[in-house]
Amino acid sequence: MPSSIRNTVKLLRIPFSFFLAPLFLFAYSQAETVVHRQALWSFLIIHFLVYPASNGYNSYVDRDEDSIGGLEKPPLPTRELFYLTIFLDVAATVLALVFVNTLFALCMVLYIGASRAYSSRQIRLKRYPFIGFLTVVIFQGAFTYYMSIAGISGGALRLDTANIFVLLGCSFQIAGAYPLTQVYQHEQDQRDGVITLSYKLGYIGTFAFTAAMFVLCNVFYYLYFTTRELGMIFYIVQVFFVPIVIWFGIWFTLVWKDRRQANFRNTMRMNWVAAICMNSCFIVLIIINRIPLSYLSSIETAVPEYGYAQETLTDFYLRSTDDLNTRRKIRIVASKTGIDKRYSVIPDFNKKPEEFTFFNRNAALMPEPTLSERMQLYQKYATALSIKAIGQIAGFENIKKSITHLITVTCTGLFAPGLDVELMRELKLNPTIERSSVNFMGCNAAILALKNADAICKSRPNAKVLVVCTELCTIHFQKRYNDDYLLSNMIFGDGAAALLVSSQPDDRYLHPVKIDGFNSMVLHNGYSDMAWQLSETGFIMNLSSYVPDLIRENIRPMLKAVGLKPEDYRHWAVHPGGKRIVDDFASALELDKCLLGPTYNVLKNYGNMSSPTVLFVLKEVLEKAKPEHSGDRIFTAAFGPGLSIETMQLRYVQA
């Protein structure tokens, strides 16, 4: 390679881009959305075209003979260098327009213009100590962060309070670093007629000014991270800043004793220490922040068209028997359920026997509908009720093509092709959607489905999971009068819930709802106290009066075993398996029953609908969120066969 070409390439100082990379990496770590292809092109354009062109143009204009950043003995520039910088700028602009986006390209053109105005002989902003300083601080600080976000996310940075703080932090970071990089160039700049801020401050003044600027930088970074409720990230950043502070202190001591220590080699050591630490820091933040999380949104619910007062359903049950003792028991159980109304797909409960369409047309209800007849009813209504719930999700038609997974939940009916395939067909979902079903797992199956959705979102950065829970409990009404059926016939209703879980937060609720974790416990001594069994006449329900006792005795030990403290949670969404279950749950954890208001409300207005019920409760909790609830935790619990306890922890996070 001819020496002229070698020198021209050398003056581009491409390796110097390493020192300028931190703000791009910081922006990448904080961007709410990342378009990876555009982010890669943005990085390459900025660091291998724009920065080298700026370095080369500055060298061409200044014709430095003494050390400059990255080169202790720079060669003299050639005319080829000037034309190469023009080519790099044009190439950067074209590539930005073609492979990134217009906003990024516009920002880049403004950056190039500011860089040229700073160095060119015609304008020469660098000869003015304060204007030149502000140009560098703004364009290499806040503007570079803004430009990087535009390239990384494909859109403009939202200028809310937190982001204004981070822009100020970036500018003060450059405000501290820039004068320090000029501390060895005072004599060279004087010969060129340039009076820098560093020269005006003097050697000791430059160090003092740098320290002050970095303090302000840290203040705004603290405000940024705490505003976004990421205070722990701020302290992680401080760990990486420690080596920078140590070398800064050592160098300042050397310069205090001997001004000749403010030289090129010590400046480059400072640059290397700072760049290595800050690039490492922001790479760590990228790893932390780009790990996919899962967020819950858009819980919507639906019930069948037939709603019945609890008294109506009680009367229907009473008419099925002439036994006075049994009728007395039915009335006692009904009076203690805490339920005012339930819903059903069956229109018979308030009709005369001769008007029945599902049950046999006699008061005794005999013979009872067969399992086949019950499953036919389930297949007839389950899909429609599910679609009714899904249809409540705002903008579903616009987002359904982005749904990657479908999870259906049910324990009151089965058919094949199942509810999942029916929903795909009726809603015209993507035929390549990944689907699964949680079947026959009872009242806590919604949390089990959410556990699966959470795992999917944490392994797939762009996942969007639709979870649908649909139960038609009342189709299993049976003419039985043992204690299990006295209770189950008086508490169960029909309903459906649909929700979205995604790996990115949205604004559907006042605060994005992040899924923090799950915990499970199976109480084998309650194996037979809550169970379903198939029979020729439908599902046989076992629901003993010992269930509340088992939950009361085990819920606090369970939470203690996994390190959860009830006092850490201000919001509770507990499955209303029955009034006594809710009462005993509150008693066991010493909770004010007001905290379980949504649970009691759902029990009162809908009864126990099995799996979707806890989502009815959670929907009410989330819709009552207030601005001051940001950062609050939500505890969700449901109980199912086995006897099993499933819990989920959620958190309101900053948008």
Automatic annotation (TrEMBL):
<keyword id="KW-1133">Transmembrane helix</keyword>
<feature type="domain" description="Chalcone/stilbene synthase C-terminal">
    <location>
        <begin position="523"/>
        <end position="653"/>
    </location>
</feature>
<feature type="transmembrane region" description="Helical">
    <location>
        <begin position="161"/>
        <end position="180"/>
    </location>
</feature>
<dbReference type="GO" id="GO:0016747">
    <property type="term" value="F:acyltransferase activity, transferring groups other than amino-acyl groups"/>
</dbReference>
<keyword id="KW-0472">Membrane</keyword>
<dbReference type="InterPro" id="IPR011141">
    <property type="entry name" value="Polyketide_synthase_type-III"/>
</dbReference>
<keyword id="KW-1003">Cell membrane</keyword>
<comment type="similarity">
    <text>Belongs to the thiolase-like superfamily. Chalcone/stilbene synthases family.</text>
</comment>
<dbReference type="Pfam" id="PF01040">
    <property type="entry name" value="UbiA"/>
</dbReference>
<protein>
    <submittedName>
        <fullName>Predicted naringenin-chalcone synthase</fullName>
    </submittedName>
</protein>
<keyword id="KW-0812">Transmembrane</keyword>
<dbReference type="Pfam" id="PF02797">
    <property type="entry name" value="Chal_sti_synt_C"/>
</dbReference>
<feature type="transmembrane region" description="Helical">
    <location>
        <begin position="201"/>
        <end position="224"/>
    </location>
</feature>
<dbReference type="InterPro" id="IPR012328">
    <property type="entry name" value="Chalcone/stilbene_synt_C"/>
</dbReference>
<dbReference type="GO" id="GO:0016020">
    <property type="term" value="C:membrane"/>
</dbReference>
<dbReference type="GO" id="GO:0030639">
    <property type="term" value="P:polyketide biosynthetic process"/>
</dbReference>
<feature type="transmembrane region" description="Helical">
    <location>
        <begin position="230"/>
        <end position="256"/>
    </location>
</feature>
<dbReference type="InterPro" id="IPR000537">
    <property type="entry name" value="UbiA_prenyltransferase"/>
</dbReference>
<dbReference type="Pfam" id="PF00195">
    <property type="entry name" value="Chal_sti_synt_N"/>
</dbReference>
<feature type="transmembrane region" description="Helical">
    <location>
        <begin position="268"/>
        <end position="288"/>
    </location>
</feature>
<dbReference type="InterPro" id="IPR044878">
    <property type="entry name" value="UbiA_sf"/>
</dbReference>
<feature type="domain" description="Chalcone/stilbene synthase N-terminal">
    <location>
        <begin position="297"/>
        <end position="505"/>
    </location>
</feature>
<feature type="transmembrane region" description="Helical">
    <location>
        <begin position="130"/>
        <end position="149"/>
    </location>
</feature>
<feature type="transmembrane region" description="Helical">
    <location>
        <begin position="81"/>
        <end position="110"/>
    </location>
</feature>
<keyword id="KW-0808">Transferase</keyword>
<dbReference type="GO" id="GO:0016765">
    <property type="term" value="F:transferase activity, transferring alkyl or aryl (other than methyl) groups"/>
</dbReference>
<dbReference type="InterPro" id="IPR016039">
    <property type="entry name" value="Thiolase-like"/>
</dbReference>
<dbReference type="InterPro" id="IPR001099">
    <property type="entry name" value="Chalcone/stilbene_synt_N"/>
</dbReference>
